[in-house]
Amino acid sequence: MIRVLVADDQPLVRAGLTALVNLEPDLEVVGEAGDGVAALAMARELRPDVVCLDIRMPGLDGIAVARELCGPDVEAPIPVLVLTTFDLDDYVFSALEAGVSGFLLKDAEPETITAAIRHVAAGNGTIDQSLTRRILGEFVRRRSLQPVSASHRSEVLTGREQEILQLLAQGMSNDEIARALVIEVSTVKSHLARMLPKIGVRSRLQAVVWAYQNRFVDLPDAR
């Protein structure tokens, strides 16, 4: 059972999301919070598998809560899926930098939201498809990062890890990567488990951003 904490300052939205999650046989809402302070306290107490977090909330906004739950300096991070009505670029950039594992708009289809919760719980990142190309391209351009040169890539990642990262950045699942490389899914998972700490990230989504930052794959067309 995947344990979910729902945090949203609008009671109707919170109730609707809770009902949606509880309809799924493998998902369970273990707590609800109406503001950022309560969301942070409940997440630390309940240790859910996923926190579904709104951005605009009283007390602490969702970005501040996310930094406390899954930021770079958090020793035992709790995966966060941001659900918001706002698709402003700065919100998405801040959410990614805060370490969130996923970002969806609230008007996403119900099955998309529940699938995203499962993806995040499994350690897989997700981002609203309407935002992906624009956001990744602009996010990489805004960040100041010294790229890893081609001559030094082999010092960071093995050849197989580079292949997996390139396919991951194309949006492939573990099963699809395994089929493309003719290897077992368990092998893909093992490579990912070793690769993420090497590049200093915690999620597949952050690995994809890192891949674009370091030109492992071409920047997406942001139009």
Structural description of this entry:
Helix 2 runs parallel beside helix 3 and helix 8 (159-169) crosses helix 11. This protein has two domains: 2-127, Response regulator (Rossmann fold); 146-213, Arc Repressor Mutant, subunit A (Orthogonal Bundle), CATH 1.10.10.10. By secondary structure, it is of the alpha/beta class. The chain has a six-stranded parallel beta sheet with strand order 2-1-3-4-5-6, sandwiched between helices. It contains eleven helices and six strands. The longest helix is centred in the middle third of the chain and has 14 residues, at 129-142. The chain is globular. This is Response regulator transcription factor. InterPro entries: CheY-like_superfamily, NreC/VraR/RcsB-like_REC, Sig_transdc_resp-reg_C-effctor, Sig_transdc_resp-reg_receiver, Tscrpt_reg_LuxR_C, WalR-like. The modification 4-aspartylphosphate is found at residue 54. It comes from Agromyces larvae. Residues 150-215 form the HTH luxR-type domain.
What characteristic shape results from the CA principal axes?
Answer: globular
Name the CATH class of the largest domain: Alpha Beta
What's the number of domains? 2
* Rg on CA atoms, Å: 17 Å
Strand order, sheet with most strands: 2-1-3-4-5-6
Main sheet properties: 6 strands, parallel
Question: How many strand segments?
Answer: 6
The secondary structure category is: alpha/beta
Helical fraction equals 40-55%
Distance linking N and C termini: 40 Å
The helix tally amounts to: 11
CATH topology of the largest domain: Rossmann fold
Contiguous low-pLDDT stretches (5 residues minimum) are none
**Strand content of the residues, in percent?**
5-15%
CATH homologous superfamily name of the largest domain? Response regulator
Mind telling me which CATH architecture of the largest domain this is? 3-Layer(aba) Sandwich
Report the order of strands and helices: EHEHEHEHEHEHHHHHH
Average of per-residue pLDDT values:
82
